[in-house]
Structure formats: structure tokens, C-alpha cells
Design brief:
About 50% of the residues lie in helices and about 15% in strands. By secondary structure, it is of the alpha/beta class. The protein is flat.
Length: about 525
């Protein structure tokens, strides 16, 4: 398990619970444990520890900060806001604080749990599974593999001298059990059984029989253990394998908990990046998105996914969480450890974008997710891709782009990049800006629409068609499917009755913009 850093710890417990006041050595310093200070016992060397200043007033904790530094500790935790800031900075240790009424044993439990639960870089905890595979192989007497329910190989033994066959070699190379009807039948037999089963060799030149057992917890199947049986297994092999399955269940549950914690932490971090409140450098370290090959921040893009508006309010949250799981799964399959989060009904994913120009690769991913989500959730899903930005410091800009793209999508266009719908997005933003300012929304366009509404005329549509056609009467007539004389008459009436100045190019531009945005005449003609 990778060492927990101060930044990792704050990702979990930072905020109202634990506040950071200074970190002279940075957020990447390791944090190994949380220790309660005892005034009656001398401090011993404890590299990376956080010292909880039990029984010491925050304002009087300066000597304790220096003592913690001498003991190799990473930081000091005090109660209340008036801690020894200058002394901590001088000593080179982090200073953190909790509320004045916080119980020290609660604080200790909170910090110790967060430090101990910190997942590995891969978020899987597979090192313990490999050790278990070796232990089972030694006890049972045959090469062992641990699989998940999808027949992916999570860990395998490396005990010297134990025979393996072609199926095992192929599975380990691809970390996936080779598929075949005979293999599927053996899994059906295995998962239907209550305990250890003996399975015959599959057809093949050197394939050997297997001893196998399902790994379960609380009635849920977590995976399986498989042992190659070359005829020389230990007499108590079945009992040893069953014991191994019990241990594997604990490790798989712990690995799942670590993975879920990592997802929660990364999701919370992405939420703060989307809001523009996270530290980009710390987030890059946490998410594994550092510098690109050129030494500059690695480019990224935000993808946003939203359910169709037809989903009932009661189902939005539940279906949204299912969509989040699906987006995470697909992104993790392509990019490994990944950040995704559900915010106000929208699922956001952060996509690495080295060398990504037009967005074709990301768009294919989004289209795949939208297609899968539509089938799995039975609800239409739409996806908007923001612009590629230069590093995590600009994630909020890409999120704003993605949000705007979502607003202009529809059944005919469920997936798009910001670049593909730039005109629509620009007109949408102009509509909002024009509508917010009285002086920008004033003008003759209101008189035109009012006259049409009162008299049943079509001056507004005719004006827009004429302007769309570059002030060409024949072109406007084609757009409206009417005779050119009809267009000419309508424009003459708009001039004379409503005082619309069509000779001034600035007037024409503003009129066209207002009618197409504020007037709702966005379509041609």
C-alpha cells in the first residue's frame, strides 16, 4: 500500500473537521500514523506521525511543535484556531487544528481510520492477494490463481517447481481466463456448488484438472480460487483451499472498500476542480495527471453526461448513480484510475487529452457510453464534451463548455464536442447576455413580433430569411417557399409601417441577431 500523504489525508478529512494552517514541507510529505501526546512519556522517534496535542493549549503548543519536528514527525494537531503557526513553520512541521470542543479520542479515530484506509495507487490492494495466492499454492501443493466473477485474473502464485498448463499460461499473459463453452460449463458447476469442487481437464495438449472454490461473503459471489491439479496435491488440499477462500473474501472486500474510498476521494476532488476550488498541483498528484512529455501540465477535457428530461424526479438520483457507475467503468477500462462525479444530475468525467485535437477519440468514447447507457438504463442519455484545456487549473472552463453543449443537444444530436456546436453555443450565450441587459434587448424587433402576433403577418420570418440570404430577395423567397414579390412587399411594409431601417448595415445586424436569439427565430426562414 502506498504511503498516505498529507494531501491524501486532507482529501478525506479536510474541511470542517480538520483544518490545515501551514505545511512548510508541502502536501506530499508522508503521514504514517496518528499519536496521542502524553506529557508523562518522552516523545520517541516516529517518522511521518501526526502528533495530537492532548492536554496542551493551542497557544502554548510551540515547544511541542519543535519536539515533534525533532522526532521526525510530519505535523501537529491542536484544538482551536490560535495554534503556534510561526513555531510550526520554523520547525518545518505541518500545523492542523480541530474544533475546540472536539473529543481527542474521536479525532484520533478519524485520523487513524483515514490514514489506514488510504488505498494504493492502483486502488486495488492486489499485493495481499498475490501473497495469498503464494500461501495457498504452498499449502495445497499446486499453482493457484484468484479470479473475480468476470473471470479476470486478479493474482496468481509464483511458487517454483509447480506445474502449469497452457490455459494457465494464456490466462496469466492476458489476465483473463480464455473463453470456451467447456470453460463456461465449469464455472456454472463451480458457482452452483457449496464448497470445493474437482473439475476435469479441458480438452488440450497439456491441460490439467483443477481444484476450485467460489469466494463468497454474505451470499454474494466475490470471485474464485483455482488450483492446477497435477496429481500431487496435499492430502488436505480441499480444506486448505476452503480456508484460502475465507481469507480471499476478506481481502476482496477490503480491496473493494479501498477502491470505493479511492473513487469517493477522486470524485470529491473532481467536484472541487469543476468548481475551481481545488489546488491543481495537489490534484494532479492525487489523480495521476501530472506533467506531459514537454514538461507542461498535461491537457485534459471534461465530458458531461445527462439523462433525458423525461426521467421522473423520483428516479433521477437513482438512475443518475447508475449512470455514474457506467461512466466510471467505461473510463477506467480505457484510462485506468479515473475520476467521475455526479453533480446536480450531471455526471462529469475528466479525460486525459494528450495529442487530442478534434476530439474524435473522446467523442467515440462518449458515443459508446451513451449507447450502452441507453440500453442498460432504458433512458436516452446525452453527452457534451468541453474544449481541451491546458492542465487541471483550467478544468472549470472545460466544464462550462460541456454544460453549454448539453443545453443545445437533442434527440437528433445526442453527442457533440464544443467545437462541433460552437455556433449554437455562441447564439445561446448571446441570447442570455442580450436578455439580461435592457439596452441590448431594446429595438424594432419587438415591434415586428408584436405586429405579427396581432395581425397574423410574417414580417419577422421574412426579415430573418432575407438577412440569412445575404439581403438577396430571390434567396429569401427560396427559403420561405414564396414568390419574390411577396418578400418584397413584406419588407416594404416593415419599413413603412414599423420604421425598420434596412439600409443601415449595423441596424440589419442587430435586428437579425435579436430576432434569431430573443425572438426565437433560430431556424432559417
Amino acid at each position: 500500500m502506498d504511503a498516505c500523504t498529507l494531501g491524501d489525508l486532507l482529501d478525506v478529512v479536510g474541511g470542517p473537521s480538520v483544518r490545515l494552517h501551514t505545511a512548510p514541507a508541502g502536501l506530499a510529505v508522508p503521514v504514517t500514523e496518528a499519536l496521542l501526546y502524553d506529557a508523562h512519556v518522552p516523545l520517541t522517534r516516529a517518522p511521518g506521525a501526526l502528533l495530537l496535542a492532548v492536554g496542551v493549549r493551542a497557544s502554548a503548543a510551540g515547544p511541542l511543535a519543535r519536539a515533534a519536528a525533532e522526532a521526525g514527525m510530519s505535523g501537529l494537531v491542536v484544538r482551536g484556531p490560535d495554534g503556534p503557526l510561526a513555531e510550526a513553520e520554523s520547525a518545518g512541521v505541518a500545523l492542523l487544528s480541530v474544533d475546540e470542543d472536539a473529543a481527542w479520542h474521536h479525532v484520533h479515530l478519524l485520523l487513524a481510520s483515514a490514514i489506514g484506509a488510504r488505498p494504493s495507487a492502483a486502488g486495488s490492494g492486489l499485493g495481499d492477494l498475490f501473497a495469498l495466492a503464494d500461501a495457498v499454492a504452498a499449502a495445497v501443493g499446486g499453482a493457484t490463481a484468484i479470479e473475480d466473477p468476470r473471470q479476470r485474473i486478479l493474482a496468481y502464485s509464483t511458487v517454483a517447481g509447480q506445474p502449469v498448463d497452457e490455459d494457465r499460461r494464456t490466462g496469466i499473459l492476458g489476465l483473463q481466463v480464455p473463453g470456451s463453452p467447456a470453460n463456461s460449463e465449469q464455472y456454472r458447476v463451480l458457482f452452483a456448488a457449496e464448497g470445493v469442487v474437482r473439475l476435469p481437464a479441458l480438452e488440450g495438449s497439456d491441460n490439467l484438472p483443477r481444484l476450485a472454490v467460489a469466494v463468497r461473503a454474505g451470499g454474494e459471489t466475490l470471485g474464485s480460487l483455482w488450483v492446477v491439479d497435477d496429481g500431487r496435491l496435499a492430502p488436505d488440499a480441499e480444506e486448505a483451499l476452503a480456508q484460502g477462500a475465507s481469507t480471499a473474501a476478506l481481502l476482496l472486500l477490503r480491496a473493494r472498500a479501498a477502491q470505493e474510498l479511492a473513487r469517493h476521494q477522486n470524485g470529491d476532488l473532481l467536484r472541487r476542480l469543476l468548481e475551481g476550488t481545488a489546488d491543481p498541483a495537489g490534484a494532479a498528484h492525487r489523480l495521476g495527471m501530472g506533467l506531459g512529455p514537454d514538461g507542461n501540465p498535461a491537457p485534459v477535457r471534461v465530458a458531461a453526461f445527462v439523462l433525458d428530461s423525461s426521467v421522473s424526479a423520483a428516479d433521477v438520483e437513482r438512475t443518475g448513480l447508475r449512470l455514474l457507475d457506467l461512466v466510471r467503468l467505461q473510463c477506467e477500462a480505457r484510462y485506468g484510475r479515473h475520476a467521475g462525479v455526479l453533480v446536480d444530475g450531471v455526471v462529469y468525467a475528466l479525460l486525459p487529452a494528450p495529442g487530442e485535437r478534434g476530439g474524435a477519440r473522446h467523442k467515440r468514447l462518449a458515443e459508446d457510453i451513451v449507447g450502452r447507457a441507453g440500453q442498460a438504463l432504458r433512458v436516452p442519455v446525452r453527452a457534451g464534451l468541453g474544449d481541451v484545456v491546458s492542465g487541471l487549473a483550467e478544468v472549470r472552463d472545460s466544464r462550462d463548455d460541456a454544460d453549454l453543449v448539453l443545453r443545445v443537444l437533442g434527440p437528433e444530436l445526442p453527442v457533440a464536442t464544443a467545437e462541433e456546436v460552437r455556433p449554437r453555443v455562441t447564439l445561446l450565450r448571446l441570447t442570455e447576455v442580450l436578455g439580461e441587459r435592457r439596452e441590448l434587448s431594446a429595438g424594432g424587433w419587438r415591434r415586428v413580433l408584436a405586429h405579427d402576433a396581432e395581425h397574423g403577418t410574417e414580417y419577422a420570418r421574412t426579415l430573418v430569411a432575407w438577412l440569412d440570404a445575404g439581403c438577396d430577395m430571390a434567396g429569401a423567397a427560396r427559403l420561405l417557399a414564396v414568390h419574390a414579390n411577396t418578400c418584397r412587399y413584406r419588407l416594404r411594409q416593415a419599413r413603412g409601417q414599423l420604421g425598420i431601417d434596412l439600409d443601415d448595415p449595423d441596424e440589419r445586424l442587430v435586428l437579425w441577431l435579436q430576432l434569431r436569439t430573443l425572438g426565437g427565430l433560430g431556424g432559417r426562414g
